[in-house]
Amino acid sequence: MTNSEQWGDFLGCLLSNAVTAHRDSKEYEYIRQRQEHIEEMRTTNLTSDQNTFIEEILYDLGLIAERETEVVYRRGFADCVWLLKKLEVLA
Fold first, then answer.
1. Residue 1 in 3-state DSSP?
2. Contacts (Cβ under 8 Å, ≥6 apart) of 46
3. Domains of the chain: which residue ranges?
4. Are 74 and 11 in contact (CB under 8 A)?
5. What does DSSP assign to residue 90?
6. pLDDT band at 23 (very low <50, low <70, confident <90, very high)
7. Is the confidence at residue 91, as pLDDT, over 90?
8. Closest C-alpha among 2, 19, 6 to residue 70
9. What is the pLDDT of residues 27-78, one digit of tens each?
10. Distance CA 21, CA 28 (A)
């Protein structure tokens, strides 16, 4: 395994831990309840075709947001390491 692959695995573990910690928060519980409310509105107020169309859009938007979050998280971590090196905290 290359250093780059090891770095990727390490960052993946950190991201996973961050997501797990977030899911244990009150903020996440509020968001989950809000999502349930939106889901209820969507299923009761739209036709089957409209619901399918909206579901596809929401799924794609979720994938985009998830990927963007991961990219920003990894960049933030790399920036933090760069800054610590510049401050000579890390060699």
1. coil
2. 54
3. 3-86
4. yes
5. -
6. very high
7. no
8. 19
9. 999 999 999 999 999 989 999 999 999 999 999 999 999 999 989 988 998 8
10. 10
